[in-house]
Design goal:
Elements (H helix, E strand, L loop, with lengths): L3 E6 L4 E7 L1 E6 L2 E6 L5 E14 L2 E14 L3 E5 L3 E2 L6 H15 L5 H23 L1
Parallel strand pairs: 1-7
Antiparallel strand pairs: 1-2, 3-4, 3-5, 5-6, 6-7, 6-8
Helix pairs in contact: 1-2
């Protein structure tokens, strides 16, 4: 299978930089699969799981939203955070989930409510991903 370079960049580091067979990401419009030779493409990413296929094997990681840019030879993902399931501190994610839920249950401004819902979504994504392994 033809490969293409995938780079996943966070503010802290270059999380991933390898040639891959395929990539599946969750955009804000739905899931998208990327193969070598994909048309040029830019999209917003939702909080979720990315699936990376390399040498016929899928590997998953969480991402905290961001953007994807695809051209003929390379795909770049810019995200606030990316983690492999083994790196996730499940207890910390559960505490973040509980805190976000407690904030959502209070009467807050729309902005505070939106921020709490994003935190909850990130925590749930991390917990689900970590528990798959």
């Amino acid at each position: 299978m033809a490969t293409f370079n995938l780079q996943i960049v966070t503010p802290d580091k270059l999380f991933y930089n390898e040639d891959v067979d395929m990539l599946v990401v969750r955009t804000t419009e739905g899931d998208v699969g990327i193969l070598k030779g994909h048309i040029d493409y830019v999209a917003s990413l939702d909080i979720g799981i990315i699936k990376i296929k390399k040498d016929g094997v899928f590997k998953e990681a969480t991402i905290a939203g961001g953007f994807i840019q695809v051209d003929k030879e390379k795909t770049t993902i810019l995200t606030e955070a990316a983690e492999w399931p083994i790196e996730i501190d499940v207890e910390r994610a559960k505490k973040a989930k509980e805190l976000a839920e407690s904030i959502i249950n209070r009467k807050l401004s729309d902005r505070e409510m939106d921020m709490a819902e994003v935190r909850l979504k990130k925590a749930l994504n991390r917990i689900r991903t970590a528990q798959k392994d």
